[in-house]
Automatic annotation (TrEMBL):
Pfam families: NIPSNAP. The lineage of its organism: Bacteria, Pseudomonadati, Planctomycetota, Planctomycetia, Pirellulales. The keyword Signal applies. This is NIPSNAP family protein. InterPro entries: Dimeric_a/b-barrel, NIPSNAP. Keywords: Signal. It comes from the Bacteria. Transmembrane segments: none annotated. It comes from Blastopirellula marina. Residues 1-26 form the signal peptide.
Length: 251
């Protein structure tokens, strides 16, 4: 009986330990936001390369594809691809990219896809990000394609914790109240005083209605006043409205 009890306690301890290791591994996962700018008329060539080859080669190297977008408006609407992938950790990311770039299959694809001219106009922009403790990391696809907003908030020096606390205390719930879907919230690894997040809307009309309702919500106004009593928090907002491409895992 005592032996069975010891075994039971030992198993319980093992399970707790495994849960802690699993939680630690989840915290180590790093996400990568990448933006590609193509030469004029080359966006469809880039789409074809990702659709037919690149995503599969990413997975071969241990990367996880999450979502691929194009802007719906603005200067980059005809020549920009934005996407999010993830890696087990930063070391894995480095190893995966080294493996990808040296992969003979990738080299062959890259050469064949650029027979008629170079696709990218400049080096891709890459931002490594870690999920916040309140991020839902909701990369599940919906039944119908949606519009997404990729929003970047830059805070005054030292004010990022106050911004994160405001989102943690109620801003996410207020977004949901207005019909938005919280997708993911990140802090960039090498960009201090910055929050990057993604929300989704049914369509453009729903997006406008949601933000109008949010700004006029008394709960939001009270939350904002409470959070800024020690000074201004956000000093700059960058925003992209994006739609998923046909090959995006998430829509």
């Amino acid at each position: 009986m005592m032996r069975a009890m010891h075994l039971s306690v030992g198993l319980a301890g093992l399970l707790v330990g495994m849960a802690l290791v699993s939680a630690a591994d989840a915290q180590q996962r790093v996400y990568e936001l990448r933006t590609y700018t193509t030469n004029e008329g080359k966006l469809e060539n880039l789409h074809a390369r990702f659709r037919d080859h690149t995503m599969e080669l990413f997975e071969k190297q241990g990367m996880q594809n999450h979502i691929y977008w194009v802007p719906t408006e603005g200067e980059g609407a005809d020549n920009t691809l934005v996407y999010i992938i993830s890696h087990e950790n930063r070391d894995a990311a480095k190893k995966s990219w080294q493996g990808f770039l040296s992969d003979p299959d990738w080299k062959k694809v890259a050469a064949e896809s650029e027979k008629d001219g170079k696709i990218l106009a400049k080096k891709p922009d890459a931002v490594y990000m870690e999920p916040t403790d309140f991020s839902p990391q909701n990369f599940e696809s919906a039944d119908e394609p949606r519009l997404f907003e990729l929003r970047k908030y830059t805070t005054a020096e030292g004010r990022l914790p106050a911004l994160l606390q405001r989102f943690r205390d109620g801003e996410l719930k207020l977004f949901e109240k207005q019909g938005m879907t919280n997708v993911a919230y990140f802090t960039p690894v090498e960009m201090p005083n910055t929050l990057i997040y993604v929300v989704a809307h049914k369509d453009a009309a729903a997006m406008k209605k949601a933000w109008d309702g949010f700004r006029n919500d008394q709960e939001w106004q009270q939350l904002w006043e409470q959070s800024t009593k020690d000074g201004k928090i956000v000093i700059k907002v960058d925003r992209q409205v994006l739609r998923p491409v046909d090959y995006s895992p998430m829509k």
